[in-house]
Design goal:
single chain, Rossmann fold, 2 domains, eight-stranded mixed beta sheet
Length: 292
């Protein structure tokens, strides 16, 4: 695949905030605007950012309009998603991938936004970013130092090393970085979304009992392309689980079934502290992830 790398983020650039998933809070987004302006960036809002339709940030048509317009806008340098929640999967059959490919830009988000990031990469080769979001992480003048430092460093093109706390299964591997929120990834089953090349699978989730994490991982394992192309696993944080010992055993089981190296304790999560990581770029795995 021919990778499409967006230009790096620089002070003075314009960041557009859109909400492809759940509804947003006006006051929280205004705090985010103030934060980025204090850092020397310009902020613009998607036309439909503050719309509401049940649990969604406006209708499907309004949300896809903002998504397309953000990529098309000549005065937008980077696109930052407002929050996760739910709704991105409803847009997958409405995306004009020619717009994305013809206007490559930084696109950042996590949680439900994972669906868009993985499909953008699959169908356009655009390197996207799994990282913090406007309402979720930057709605204060003093966000997490770990989160904000990683965000600005990685989006400016200075990639980090991603370290684990526990080796689950020893070994080394090479591949593109690919993954995100596990339950969102599984929601893509039925679509052509898995990379055609070897990949280092990073994952995280929240409020899911271990048996559901087990079910979702095995759903992926049962897909031949996933099973054949996954080269290593980087387990992030699984917040609010019911039994940590069950999770540890499951992580070991999955690595053994696939016979690939794995490590856990990476800083990919729904927690306050999180690292930004590029999706689609080549990396090496040896208990940590090092971008080539």
């Amino acid at each position: 695949m021919n990778l499409v790398k967006p230009k790096n983020l620089r002070p003075g650039d314009t960041i557009e905030i859109i909400a492809p998933s759940g509804g947003v809070e006006y006051d929280e987004i205004i705090k985010t605007k103030e934060y980025f302006e204090s850092k020397g960036y310009k902020i613009k809002f998607g036309k439909n950012l503050f719309k509401a339709d049940r649990y969604l940030a406006g209708s499907d048509e309004e949300r896809i309009e903002d998504l397309h317009n953000a990529f098309l806008a000549k005065d937008t340098d980077a696109i930052l998603c407002a929050r996760g929640g739910y709704g991105a999967i409803r847009l997958t059959d409405k995306i004009d991938y020619n717009i994305i490919k013809g206007n490559p830009k930084i696109f950042c988000g996590y949680s439900d936004i994972t669906a868009l990031s993985l499909l953008f990469f699959k169908y356009t080769g655009l390197i996207t970013f799994s990282g913090p979001m406007a309402q979720s992480d930057f709605n204060t003048l003093t966000p997490s130092e770990t989160t904000s430092k990683s965000f600005f460093k990685v989006l400016s093109g200075n990639y980090e090393e991603y370290t684990s706390t526990t080796i689950v299964k020893q070994g080394k591997a090479d591949g593109i970085i690919w993954g995100g929120n596990l339950s969102t990834i599984v929601s893509l089953c039925g679509l052509d979304f898995i990379p055609d090349e070897k990949f280092i699978f990073f994952l995280e989730d929240i409020n899911e009992p271990v048996y559901k994490i087990d079910k979702m991982l095995h759903q992926l394992i049962n897909i031949p392309k996933f099973r054949n192309n996954v080269a290593a696993i980087a387990y992030g944080n699984f917040g609010e689980i019911d039994d940590i010992n069950w999770l540890i055993k499951l992580e070991e089981e999955v690595a053994t079934i696939l016979n690939i190296p794995a490590a856990s304790g990476f800083m990919f999560s729904h927690n306050e502290n999180k690292q930004t990581i590029p999706i689609g770029i080549q990396a090496q795995f040896d208990g940590f992830i090092n971008i080539k």
